[in-house]
Amino acid sequence: LQDFQNRAAVRELNVIPPLLALLKSEYPVIQLLALQTLEVISKDSKTRILLGENKGLDYLLNILENKVRLHDLHIETLAVLGNCLEDVHTLQQIQLTGGLKKLLSFLEVSTVPDIQKNAAKAITKAAYDSEIRKILHREEVEKFLLILLETNNDEVNVAASHAISAMCENIDSKSVLGLQGIPKLVQLLSSDNEEVKEAVVTALTNLTTASPRNASVVAEAEGIKPLMKTLNAQRDGAISNAIAVLTNLSLQEPSRSSIQRHGIINALVGPLRSTNSQVQSKAAFAVAAFGCDAGARTELRNGGGLRPLTELLHSENEEVRRNACWAVMVCGSDERTAVELCGLGALDILEEINRSTTRKNKFSEAALEKLLDNNLSQKYSRMGYLSSSNIITDGFYDCGQIKHGGKFLSLEELSTQELTDRRAIIFINAKPQETEKMSSTLLLSLVNLSKFPVEELMYLNLNFRDYSILGMCIYIFFYVRKEKRKKDEEKSKEVIEITPTVSEEINLENSQWLPPPDFTLMDYINDASKTILPLTTTWEQVVALAQFVADKMGGCVEREQLHNFFWELDLSKIEFELKSNVVPIGKIRKGTFYHRALLFKVIADRIGIGCSLVRGKYNRAWNEVKLVELSPKGLLLPPQDYIVDLMFEPGCLLKQGSAKADQYKRI
């Protein structure tokens, strides 16, 4: 009867009545073998119906009621009844005759571990059917399962936890088991048995999913700390489900804060490196859940979690890949994390995923867009486009269009390169240095003055506006040189105090590199704020700003004389003067299309004029604005797209799609 075809054949031979008759045999071994045969044959649904029609359920319940003479047959009897519980029709028969209540009453008072374990397993199998779950709930099966959680037997606890997981699909059972069962399950998390831990956290996962009330009960039962410890369990199932429970708890702010205080972000770094796809998926999903907080993103960045997260983007598992994309999208919400993710290759991987019709998903597309929106330098280099919502801030730089597969270098890396004849890198930094408390970066630059001869200092173009700072520079210059000579004479390693008020030790390796401030750009922004912002309409502001930018970048250029506008020569002189390919935009006095368009976008973003920046071919770039034009009748028409002329007729607005606009875009 181990073969299903044989079971069907035996059923047709009406084998049930003689097997039931053998249950009355005076020989225990015959009774035992008859029950074992019934257990095998009752796996067939049609056989279970025949068993009920022949009053076989009554036979089985009578055996359970005889606790003295037939107690040795109880385990096998429960195995047969367990198979019967899987059939709705048979279960209803048992319920109508009162047999189900008798069965549960027997189980509640039984102290035999094997009986308890097998009963819980039978409930687990039966509870996969929604109708059976309703019947079991009406008979208050939850009481029996809660009793099993209090037994001091690991196998029983495991079986009870699995049964609770199955019964949680019924919302009413979920409520009862959550309120009374969660505190008991939390206590079992401290068990040394790994199988118990796995079964318990699985039950807690099902109890807390889509149930804020049960999630609160877990927190109130002080379940966060043992759940965090479970992240170090040996079984992958325990780890993945513990992460799932913590993620469910994160939907409530008090629990979320408590979990973060327990170090959830650092604890997720290990699971992110797991080889188990389920653990990887849950860990990435948890990063997406907790990464909404800026502090959590910083912790993940400092804890080395971005690299394994980026590697999960390569996963062949669709769920892992989707959750990793989701986590990258969330973590890419701030610029520093986005830049580091791009440095780890996340941008290239996402582009590869989105080129595939089978691997891309909504989250991969959103993650790519989020990374680029928070790393505008790389977005403009790759996409050649910045929208009006992409606000250029200090630290932005334009290094030209990057080739497919090419490495995108940081501004610091570009600044360390030797002067070449390649295209200049234009950077934006309108953030002045603090005058009261000088940073270690500025002090580092001042100390480096001692390396230059006095006659070469004028080439450094130090544009200090505060005479106190200028005086400090002179003082520092001579003081450092004096101290250096003293050091060489004494051959001692002394820490040089630059001023009496500055006691911070300068560490050359740990100091953060910052681009020098562009004071000319600061003037541009201040002047534009004073002269352009007071204008009443956006149209007037755009025209005035276009004329302002053109004036600062060499003025109007006639189309026929464009080839005589030697902007390259002027830019080369600046590069030679700075001994660097990196040039602040305020230094440029003769700017071509892409210089002017960038400056227009920078100032427009600072004074609140919405515009986009588009890169064209052969050093072309232009700005697009949306403006509303009043009709002759005074009607307010929908906004239209215009291209701003910054070269030939500064301030002239060319309607998108017109012949003049197309001509402006191309040579």
Automatic annotation (TrEMBL):
Domain EDR1/CTR1/ARMC3-like peptidase-like: 518-653
UniProt superkingdom: Eukaryota
ARM repeat intervals: 180-222
Gene3D superfamilies xrefs: Leucine-rich Repeat Variant
Start and end residues of each ARMC5-like ARM-repeats domain: 77-330
Keyword Repeat assigned: yes
Name this protein carries in UniProt: ARMC3 protein
Species of provenance: Bombycilla garrulus (Bohemian waxwing)
Repeat among keywords: yes
Alphabetical UniProt keywords: Repeat
InterPro entries: ARM-like, ARM-type_fold, ARM_ARMC5, Armadillo, Armadillo-Ser/Thr_Kinase, EDR1/CTR1/ARMC3-like_pept-like
